Amino acid sequence: MNDPILEHLGPLAALAGTWEGTKGDDTAPSDDRGVEQNLFRERIRFEPIKPPNNHEQQLYGLRYATTAWRLEEENPFHEERGYWLWDGAANQVLRCFTIPRGISVLAGGTVEPDATSFELFAELGSPTYGICSNLFLDQEFKTVRFELKVVVHDNDAWSYEEDTQIQIKGKPDLFHHIDKNTLSRVQL
Fold first, then answer.
1. How does pLDDT run along the chain (188 residues), one tens digit per residue?
2. 4-187 belongs to which CATH class?
3. CB 163 within 8 A of CB 144
4. Considering Cα of 180, then 141, then 62, then 77, what sign does the dihedral take?
5. What DSSP designation does 2 have?
6. Residue 147: beta bridge partners?
7. Transmembrane ranges (predicted)?
8. Helix (H, G, I), strand (E, B) or coil at 137
9. Cα–Cα–Cα angle for 31, 35, 39, nearest 5°?
10. What distance in Å separates the CA atoms of residue 78 and residue 44, rounded to the nearest whole number?
């Protein structure tokens, strides 16, 4: 991809392109509010976007779309759409996304421009990096914190681990909904 925006994306530049992972692991709440394990495959597409006009703040970013399928199944069990953004003046990576279950997240963190690993977070009630859910999820499966760790291994592989911390109604302890995968580039 020969896009001049890539030189302004800091640590996100390595993510541009299309990626596939075939050995994802999802620990999620089951239908009976217990625990279920799902092995999955996924496809993520990151496309550079024209920098948005945000007054003095200069953001560069990638539009992204994720689709995940349980192994051996045809229909996806997870989709999300959003943006990964780089604010080079503040050394901030932002990830804003929506999941069609009725939840939106804006996660962020301080990251060096040449970093090959970084962490982002969002917390319920935060005025900056926060979480917003629909009424049902807020009452039954309240997401109180989101943590993301990203490691870029080389030009053709990266991995992530997400910890979505959920307060399930009637349960005393937080549920750690963990998603993790290693992805390989299939197209630049």
1. 567 788 899 999 999 999 999 999 999 999 999 999 999 999 999 999 999 889 999 999 999 999 999 998 999 999 999 999 999 999 999 999 999 999 999 999 999 999 999 999 999 999 999 999 999 999 999 999 999 999 999 889 999 999 999 999 999 999 999 999 999 999 98
2. mainly beta
3. no
4. positive
5. -
6. 121, 163
7. none
8. helix
9. 95
10. 12
